[in-house]
Amino acid sequence: MTDVVVIGAGAAGLMCAIAAGQAGRSVVVLERGERIGAKILISGGGRCNFTNMNAGSENYLSSNPDFCKSALARYRPDDFIALVEKHGIAYHEKKLGQLFCDNSSRDIVEMLQRECAEAGVKIETKAEVTVVRHNEADGSFEIESSVGAFTTKRLVIATGGLSLPKLGATDFAYRIARQFGLSVIPGRAGLVPFTFGGEALEFCKALSGISAPCSVTITGQAGKGKRAEFTEHFLFTHRGLSGPSMLQISSYWQAPAELRINLFPEENARAWLEENHSSGLRLDTLLSRRLSERFATAWAKPLAPLRPVREYSPQQLDDIARRLENWTLQPAGTEGYATAEVTVGGIDTRDLNSKTMEARAVPGLYFIGEAVDVTGWLGGYNFQWAWASGHACGQAV
Length: 397
Hints:
With 397 residues, this protein is of the alpha+beta class. It is 30% helix and 25% strand. It has helices spanning 11-22, 38-42, 69-74, 77-86, 106-118, 172-179, 198-206, 244-250, 269-275, 283-287, 293-300, 314-325, 381-396; strands spanning 2-7, 27-30, 49-52, 60-61, 91-93, 98-101, 122-124, 129-135, 140-145, 148-157, 184-190, 194-195, 211-219, 229-236, 240-242, 258-262, 327-329, 333-334, 342-347, 365-367, 375-376. The strands form 5 sheets. Strands 1, 2, 7, 8, 9, 10 and 20 form a 7-stranded mixed sheet that branches. Strand 8 (129-135) and strand 9 form a beta hairpin. Helix 1 (11-22) packs parallel to helix 5 (106-118) and helix 1 (11-22) packs parallel to helix 13. The two termini are 14 Å apart.
């Protein structure tokens, strides 16, 4: 019998295995894919945005917002940074507390692999798990897989969510949760580009590749808590809108809500128009100083006939400023799990112990990482949840 079996060799599963192995447990990790850490390897453009120095519970979505606090408090960004520095991995802050490897994401995977080896963790790849049984007589779990059968008293599910199926994502964690009577919060794609139809799509296509700063919120969507708002750049694509601000707000968006975009996120649009009132420039030409010539021309086109700014009345300038600060668009949807970085939703955390990640009704069964209904913002937050939830679980098993 193995003390701990971890299914899934991603960020959370490997961290859990390391912590459990360091505590003296015998640990086997079963990975369905050909290699470990597949999602780590492609993250951050190949340089792995491995944490965010500002990570706190306010940076996560969940139907049970307090759940993540315990794990995040007990394994902080500084703890993972210390591990990175221990292995001599060079890194840098890109912006907003986001930490990236100087060299390659492979540095993080190799670090985790070395830590597993030092902790005596055995990793099996190409290990397709076909059956999980629970022996209620002694509380053990029997796992059948393509690499053999395993018996354990502590089973950890770390197989992630539905995002990026090309990397092998499946609903395995949800199936196991339901098998054992746990609830699953319906999922949707998060940190994902928006798609549009009709005239809005043609507008985006014509401007594909152009980027601009903005603040974006959601309008027409009922919800609890503080309104989500993100201020970063967005990017036009041939299918709709992407870029950091759009990826961030996508995790909160649900049809048929609209996006409200402020093209003057750091300045009052009306005051700016007033400052330039005597410039003699036509409206689209003036706007090209802030947006881009193509974007300014396309955005201002519905206001034709265009005139020099000084020829607009105060009321007309008020209207233009309002439009600049409240540009409203209706997405047709998102690009879905195929390009989503995360899954919003997952195993209901009310069925889990926040200190150990153990299922309340099934002693010895644990769920960690993206499989759980805890979803971080863009910028290293999801990795920090993986490290924190994996570490909490690894210390408990």
